[in-house]
Predict the 3D structure of the following.
Amino acid sequence: MTALAALLLVVVLVYALERAHRRRPGPWPPSAGGSEVVDRDAERVRSDLRAMAGRTGAPVSGSRCWRSGPAR
């Protein structure tokens, strides 16, 4: 009897979720801003990697992300 009640509960839950999913207008609600957001962190990392790839020799004064020797 308990298994039947649990099964019935699962069936009702799945039905309710499917019904709610079908009633939504799209996959996501429209965002308040634009969806063309530029990821400035990714741009900064790419530019840092490009700059590091072009370096040969000692690091720039004040730089903490580049070492010109073995890691300590």
Notes: Helices lie at 2-23, 40-53. The radius of gyration is 27 Å. The longest helix spans residues 2-23.
